[in-house]
Amino acid sequence: MPKIQCSECADTLLPVRDALDVISGKWKLQVIIAIAAGNQRFTEIERSIPGITPKVLNKELKDLEQHYLIKRQVLDTYPVMISYQLTRHAKTLDAVIHMLRDWGKQHRNHIKKQYQQT
Amino acid sequence: MPKIQCSECADTLLPVRDALDVISGKWKLQVIIAIAAGNQRFTEIERSIPGITPKVLNKELKDLEQHYLIKRQVLDTYPVMISYQLTRHAKTLDAVIHMLRDWGKQHRNHIKKQYQQT
DNA sequence: CGGAATCCTCTACGATACTG
DNA sequence: CAGTATCGTAGAGGATTCCG
Question: Using CB atoms within 10 A as the burial measure, which of A71, B33, B71, B83 is most buried?
Answer without folding.
Answer: B33
